[in-house]
Amino acid sequence: LPYVPRVAPMALLGKVTATTFALERPCCIFDQHASALDSVWLAVAFANATATFRNPPSRADVPPYKQLPTAHSYMTLETAAAAFACSAPSPAVLRVGGDTACRDQGRQDPCNGPLPSPGPYRVKFLLMGCHGPKAETRWSHPILLHRALSPSTIDPVPPRHGSDVVVIMSILASLGTVLATTVLGALGAKVWGSLCHRDLGTSTFARRSYRTHHIPPALPQPLPPGCGCSPPGLGCLTLRPPAPC
């Protein structure tokens, strides 16, 4: 068949990961060749092993997932051919490598286990009936998975910035400090002015206190001639000479 499998073209979270990839589901591809009892398989192989892949003559000869490290290929995702008909409602993608239970349980049946390496891989769809293969698609283009980084390759020291970046960061930090100081100074002056106005107001002089200097008492002065003492309590009187006759 002229159909070429491909990774799903729509935007999809996790379309390609380190162990899986999402394929576009083929639709209306096998309608003219399939019967009600036929099934569609997906053959997965390393990109350099497609030339040696041979279609199995029966379901009993399908290469299982556990033989991928040695046989470099396997078959999975057995699905009734009716699920790929034009009128069949079905999901838009097929997730290859999404069954983590295959590796853990060690099942003998073909399963859809996680892919063990980045690949690259190539895939094709194979229509099989009771007597063996009936139709097949072309092989896909190589599909390369994401490569997980080893913890030993991660640099714990952050990269150093260039001199231009350091200068810009220093200028920005200085401008931020100046701006913060200006804002705080303006707020402080405003608060201080409001407090002084409230405390002083119109009673500025009423609250102001004065402290006088100490003035020593006056010492008694000697009496001038002709001065006599007045009766007690009247103080000192000046005696004037009598007027001339």
Automatic annotation (TrEMBL):
Parts of the chain that traverse the membrane: 165-189
Gene assigned in the entry: Upk3b
Matching InterPro entries: Uroplakin-3 (IPR024831)
Cleaved signal peptide residues: none
Alphabetical UniProt keywords: Membrane, Transmembrane, Transmembrane helix
The keyword Transmembrane is assigned to this record: yes
Stored PANTHER family: UROPLAKIN III, UROPLAKIN-3B
Organism: Scytalopus superciliaris
Name listed for the protein in its UniProt record: UPK3B protein
A GO cellular-component term linked to this record: membrane
Superkingdom classification of source: Eukaryota
